[in-house]
Design brief:
- 58% of the residues lie in helices and 0% in strands.
- It has 52 residues and is mainly α.
- Helix 1 packs across helix 2.
- 19% of the residues are buried.
Amino acid sequence: MSDKKASTPDQPYQPIPFAKKHRISVEDAKAIIEKHGADRKSADKEARRVAV
């Protein structure tokens, strides 16, 4: 019963859901994910700064 869309904490975010979650552009989301990789805590922190 594995859902391919479900992400686990050790995998990087997908750009579109991440952008929607933080209300940022998909381009910003891609850049953040590329920079922080699977470090979700750092990615979330960076997205909060961008979302201002």
